Amino acid sequence: MVNDLIFPDILLYLLDMVGIIACAIAGTLLAQHKGFDIAGCILVSMVNAIGGGTLRDMALDRHPLFWMTDLNYVIVITVTSLILQIFFHLYHKIDNALKLFDAIGLAAFSVIGFKVALTQGMSPLIAIMMGVWTAIIGGMLRDIICNEIPLVLQREIYITASIAGSVTYLCLQYVGVSAGINEFIMLFVIFAVRMLALRFDWHLPSIRLVA
Amino acid sequence: MVNDLIFPDILLYLLDMVGIIACAIAGTLLAQHKGFDIAGCILVSMVNAIGGGTLRDMALDRHPLFWMTDLNYVIVITVTSLILQIFFHLYHKIDNALKLFDAIGLAAFSVIGFKVALTQGMSPLIAIMMGVWTAIIGGMLRDIICNEIPLVLQREIYITASIAGSVTYLCLQYVGVSAGINEFIMLFVIFAVRMLALRFDWHLPSIRLVA
Amino acid sequence: MVNDLIFPDILLYLLDMVGIIACAIAGTLLAQHKGFDIAGCILVSMVNAIGGGTLRDMALDRHPLFWMTDLNYVIVITVTSLILQIFFHLYHKIDNALKLFDAIGLAAFSVIGFKVALTQGMSPLIAIMMGVWTAIIGGMLRDIICNEIPLVLQREIYITASIAGSVTYLCLQYVGVSAGINEFIMLFVIFAVRMLALRFDWHLPSIRLVA
Known about the structure:
The structure is a homotrimer. Chain A is mainly α. Chain A has a domain at about 10-155. The first copy, chain A, is about 75% helix and about 0% strand. Chain A contains eight helices and no strands. In chain A, helix 2 packs antiparallel against helix 6 (about 125-145). The longest helix of chain A is centred in the middle third of the chain and has 29 residues, at about 90-120. The radius of gyration of chain A is 17 Å and the shape is globular. Chains A and B meet through helix 6 and helix 7 of A and helix 2 and helix 4 of B. Chains A, B, C: It comes from Psychrobacter piscatorii. Chains A, B, C: It is a multi-pass membrane protein. Chains A, B, C: It holds the Pfam family Gly_transporter.
């Protein structure tokens, strides 16, 4: 996914890995809760971490898929899942860290998906969708495999944070902000919206003007 | 999906949009019932409306995907879903209209999927499958995301209507009917089978010759 | 999938078909249990039998998909599912045969997925994943559609058997065993591990070093 690493691509790659680790942890925890075995837990953590990017690349016809050329993804996920399965009792101490990692992942995945779509020549509307897609499809597939109603579709600010970041990027691009700085701002906006939503328990309502 | 609009392609495009609207409505209704937020409802309505065509295009290696070049799809779905969410109380008045729209969508989606596969040089058997695929996968994915057993696989005439239309097309093509007229007939056959099935409560049995 | 049939490709093709039949039977049985109609049962049996290979080919950008050029797959699945639906009462006599077929399918699907990935120039790690993917995704999709928690992710030796076969292949390749013989050995290892696991009720534990 990252071919020629120039700053801020290095930063983005590192934040991407933080998100991958957060997803691997979240996937393993749910799979353990469902009583899956070692291999099942690793598989669910992979789906959670790279499922969204995989479907995005397949939809945009980008081959080979990003995790086929950069084996770091598969290795990081497997190691994370195994460590967590062995030292599961440590989990209660990492709950808050997980929320932080998860928000970093949401921001990094959105920026990557958004950038990739623009690079492929897609319109801004499709790029916004691909940012959301990359960020949430993995978690959705995890919940579907584990026979749960997807968490990200319920009353949580995930999709909204991703869209807010993309729209900010497009506005700032319009007024002439350079791409490098703009990506930083987009990352920060998504991360901030998500953390504020967690802190103040924001969520999107169901709308209904007339009862 | 529709590049050079000549009649009857314009009609097919309009019927396609009717089907898209029906799917967006059905997706939003189920998502609301499950308590998803605004963004979640829009996402489920998108999956319902364009999920089948997306997987068909990915399977047939047609890139870019149809909704990436024609933004009408994404816009129509989003607007439909938002209007429905705001004026939800009107739903009870549109129940019968929804069934009609749904039947139109089944017919239009089947014809489009069938045509696309033939255009890509697939055999008739694969074309029949792609017609079914385009027509029902979206609703199946909607039900999977919402943790329901897919409605289209149960005792309802959906798949059968789509196959009946495709087989009619192939038979009439064999006796020399031109493609334009043949598409009309295929559309009508699928629509008629579906409406008659609803009217007279037809459904496919489970078969078992020997108890 | 099989273009120039030379031995042992013919054997592999036959074993593949045995696996396809086993998957079609398993899919039809679960779909019947869920009360799906004739068409729904056929669709679930197709997802079970060719779902894994379809996603593998889409991920590796191999087009057209294997079942689009070789219609035997679709025909064998449909006929198998129909025969089973008509003579359902015979099922109790085929339970043990099904487990045998299923193990043959696991072995054949793993070898095919593993070979295909290597042929596409993928690294060994990705090839191992593609072997697992081809062998288990179909059954996972079947369970997801039928709203069940995927069996293959639970305490059953499926993924492990597939990985054991792939690792054996890679080790023997390293010491110079020719590809033809090596494939036989890989097939046998997977089949043997699966049958032994069934016979002696082996399963992978959940690991946790510290309580």
